[in-house]
Amino acid sequence: LIPPTLPYTIPTAFLFACTFVYGRLSANQEITALKASGISAMTIMSPAFVVACGLVVVSVWLTSTAIPQCHRWMGEKIM
């Protein structure tokens, strides 16, 4: 039951985590301090982009390989 829901829950969890992290950075004026020290916005956002790319690869692998194998395995166990 859990593997088929992962392609839906992974992006939602990542969006929530990014909103929380960058929201706290903004609330504490840390983004303003980083920009004032000369660090660009792309540098601040680059960890989120790297993790997002990794999650895309994991989600595609789950959708194309792991979930169909799980369904096949469950079908064999039931019969």
Helical stretch count? Answer: 3
**Order of SSEs:** HHH
Structural class: mainly alpha
**Average predicted local confidence, pLDDT:** 89
CA radius of gyration is 18 Å
Low-confidence stretches: none
Q: What percentage of the residues does DSSP assign to strands (E)?
A: under 5%
Shape: elongated
Specify the biggest β-sheet: none
Distance between the termini: 17 Å
Count of individual beta strands? 0
Helix content: over 70%
Structure, described:
The structure is a single chain. This protein is mainly alpha-helical. Helices cover 85% and strands 0% of the residues. The protein has three helices and no strands. The protein has helices at residues 6-27, 30-36, 41-78. The longest helix is centred in the C-terminal third of the chain and has 38 residues, at 41-78. The two termini are 17 Å apart. The relative contact order is 0.14. The mean pLDDT is 89.
Provide the fold topology.
Elements: H1 6-27, H2 30-36, H3 41-78
Summarize this structure briefly.
The chain is mostly helical. The protein has 3 helices and no strands. The mean pLDDT is 89.
List keywords for this structure.
mainly alpha; 3 helices; 85% helix
